[in-house]
# Entry
Amino acid sequence: MNAKTKKSEKGREVRELDAPSLPRSAFALAPPRGMRDLLPEEYSSRAELRRRVRSTFRSYGYEVLMTPAFELAEIIERGLVGSDRRDFLRFVEPESGEIALLRPDITPQIARIAATSMRDRPGPYRLAYEGSVFRRRRGRARTQQQIEQAGVELIGEPGPGADAEILRLAAETLIAVGVKEFTLELAHVGLGLAALEPVPMESREPIVSAIAQKDAAALERILSGIKLRAAERRAIEALVSLSGPPAETLKRARKLLKGEAMSRALDELDAVSSAIAQDFPASLSVDLGDLRGQAYYTGASFTLWAAGPGEPIGSGGRYDGLLSRFGREMPATGFALNLENLEWALRARGVTLKEERPPRVVLLGEGGDGDELVKGLRSRGYEVLTLRAQRRSEALEYARSWGYDLLVQAGQKLRITLIESERELSLPRAELEQLEDLLMDERATDARPR
# Structure
């Protein structure tokens, strides 16, 4: 292995090692564990998914912004108090030497922006975002560490009306992308916090796990080793079974869960479920044993489920305490959609999203008339690729493989092949505008049931 010396940007001499020559089998030519590539067809489908999601967000008045892919650890950890820091992907920021994180959640970044850069704008803020978050997936069968999300935050408006807006927007977004059947499951973090208050901190994690798995026997074993009053034990045990239709479940909960904090949480859930009950386009349920996000959410929360991924396709809720961690006290609520899981749900329904694109043309040949033809087609909005020094049969195979619509060969007359039907025809150059009509007919024919 050879070394060479060069000057750094700051004038220091640094030694670099030449990359060793490795046999092809010495390492896997693949992305890092938990990351993935999107090939052109996958990217195009994802782009259409993003477009539909973004369009629905904007129809409610949400403005899209962008946040950096990594942030100083102090900022993210301030916004995610109580989260397991082992889930975060850390590195040393080379310029400052400070610890940074690949963002595990975009909401704290939105909170930072609302508390600083947008402080002078009147609220409420309706903000939307899309981007990848990065989390270690410990102890799970799936190892995906890069998760693409799209979401919204409604900052500065309290009450069930704002919560209902968020829930309706989430439902309309799923319908807009093609997921017509799904379940929205409501919960409230206040119930779990109140029920677990008499439990020592070191005993809470196994209790939360047993409740999440609806494992009444395991919960009973855990509670047998903890000194609790009978009423406290009954409240915790009740959380395992308190799930189902909202009205019925909340009625049962009021008989089993007593105390001011629990009554207040049930009142808030009742108000939110009543606000969306009429004409809500999805199955509604309540799971009072959903105790996730106890250090994050402050009120009603929800999870979106659909057949396919076996994991939520989205989640959200009220987090009135987050903005104060960035120096500005404001109520807030929002949600995020997991775009990978959303695509999985679409595939389970046999739905493939296709990006709307202008006609795509492979032009065979170059120079002279061909250059003028390329300019003419591109000026009409076509996507045009020029193949040089290729036989026509090779050009046809190329166009098919890469999903082009037309193969065009320049000359006194244009020799045109419609790729999908393999129909060939000639067209005078002066009648170039007819290309679009031909392609529209081709696409209409292809779309008809066979």
